[in-house]
Design a protein that fits this description.
The chain is mainly beta. Helices cover 10% and strands 39% of the residues. The strands form 4 sheets. Strands 1, 3, 4, 6, 9, 10, 11 and 13 form an 8-stranded antiparallel sheet that branches. A hairpin with a 2-residue loop joins strand 22 and strand 23.
């Protein structure tokens, strides 16, 4: 029993939909595209087939009794309205994955919306988030709208940014903003709710279930550069260096040494750092550009728990990074050119972690070609970090070690720094969402 969900920015299209979207399918469905041709599994692929898996017959896509696996769309989807009908055998359990990766457990690495005959006596002791329509282990659905086993149900799923709305037989059973999910344990357990796009699929658990009339309408993402998604604040306004400061040189570049120095010493060092910042960091065409000659750029405010979005671009053989809470670092570098020791090791790793205690390398190389923009999505809660690079999870629930004081945990709060190693680089779309 599992279920799925995803994160993303909220467009004006969602505002329109939530205000005017009908609770039952209209007679005409302009803009919808069928995902199922009624006679084959064309456009779908089966991952981890179990038993007879899935089949298609007489306009119905079915999960065979004793079969299953993960049947997902070949295409990935971001913001959409999905409509379908389903019918369950008595006590059957399935799931609907949304914004899910091809590999891994969709309930945690994407989102899974429960499909289950929870009226059956064998499910009498479910948790609230296990009933039909719930986002598994994250958001419980309202109960009472599911029909008896053997009857057809009509379901609609609207995913617009981080707003998820589900209607079942004309009743709204979920209408939630995933930005409201702030529990650290849930966020660390379910990195998939941060995903902006992924596959849609059915997640069989060995029970007979039938699906038909599966169709989808997609909506484009429309955020302009340096315009924050819903729930986020822009750290960079795209115009000037307001809200940023320089990093002092020498003994004042570490949190521990700044804390030990006098206020007068720190203020004098900061004044010099700000002068250097203005000389070497410039705003050009809505982008932060560094000329490779000064120190790192620092957000003026300290942060504790947060979700951070950052777009970045580098040149060949470049080396950079992002400090979280003033401690290095989420790595940025060139894994392709073969001109450094990081060849074939992608960006996003926690470079200064020490094995075997905590991993320093990313799970995969997800970098775009040199000269193209990349995006980090970084979730920091307590000592632990999730990192997505270009939509792919490259660091999962890993401790970020305290580089400056190895015998201590990472500082409870601190500054965010855009680091340099003497090369030209660029940043834009720097957004943050603070968490309790």
């Amino acid at each position: 029993m599992k279920f799925l969900t995803r994160l993303g920015s909220l467009s004006f299209l969602f505002i329109f939909l939530t205000a005017s979207l009908p609770t039952t399918a209209p007679a005409a469905e302009d803009g919808f595209v069928s995902l199922f041709d009624g006679k084959s599994l064309k456009g779908w692929k089966l991952i981890g087939k179990k038993g007879e898996g899935y089949g298609a017959k007489d306009g119905v896509l079915f999960c065979a009794k004793g079969g299953g696996g993960k049947l997902i769309t070949e295409k990935e989807y971001s913001d959409f309205v999905l409509r379908f009908e389903f019918k369950l055998a008595p006590g059957a359990n399935n799931g609907l994955g949304i914004r899910a990766p091809e590999q891994g457990d969709a309930a945690y690495l994407g989102m899974e919306l429960q499909i289950i005959d929870n009226r059956h006596p064998k499910w009498a002791r479910l948790q609230p988030w296990q009933y039909h329509g719930s986002i598994y282990n994250v958001v419980p659905a309202k109960r009472g709208s599911l029909k008896e086993a053997g009857e057809w149900n009509v379901q609609e799923v609207t995913a617009m940014g981080r707003r998820i709305r589900i209607t079942l037989n004309g009743d709204t059973i979920i209408d939630t903003d995933l930005n409201d999910v702030t529990d650290a344990k849930t966020l660390m357990k379910h990195p998939g709710i941060l995903r902006e796009s992924g596959h849609i699929g059915f997640l069989g658990h060995g029970d007979h279930a039938e699906f038909r009339n599966i169709r989808i309408m997609e909506f484009p993402r429309g955020n302009d550069d340096n315009s924050p998604p819903t729930g986020f604040t822009a750290l960079f306004n795209g115009k000037d260096l307001d809200g940023w400061k320089g990093l002092p040189k020498g003994p004042f570049n570490s949190p521990a040494k700044r804390a030990a120095a006098s206020k007068e010493e720190v203020a004098a060092a900061q004044e010099l750092a700000d002068e250097s910042m203005r000389e070497h960091w410039k705003v050009k065409k809505g982008e932060l550009e560094f000329d490779g000659k000064g120190q790192s750029l620092v957000a003026a405010k300290d942060y504790a728990n947060f979700e951070l979005l950052v777009d970045w671009k580098i040149k060949e053989a470049a080396d950079s990074g992002i400090y979280l809470r003033g401690s290095p670092q989420v790595q940025i570098w060139d894994p392709f050119s073969g001109k450094s020791d990081n060849t074939k090791v992608g960006s996003g790793g926690l470079f200064n972690n020490k094995l075997p205690k905590n991993s320093s390398k990313p799970l995969a190389v997800a970098d775009n070609p040199i000269g193209e923009w990349n995006q980090f999505r970084i979730l920091m809660t307590g000592e632990r970090v999730h990192i997505f690079l270009n939509g792919k999870l490259v660091v999962k629930n890993t401790v970020l070690e305290n580089y400056w004081e190895r015998d201590k945990p990472i500082y409870p709060s601190g500054q965010i720094e855009l680091q340099n190693h003497g090369n030209t680089l660029w940043f834009k779309n720097v957004y943050i969402r603070e968490l309790p």
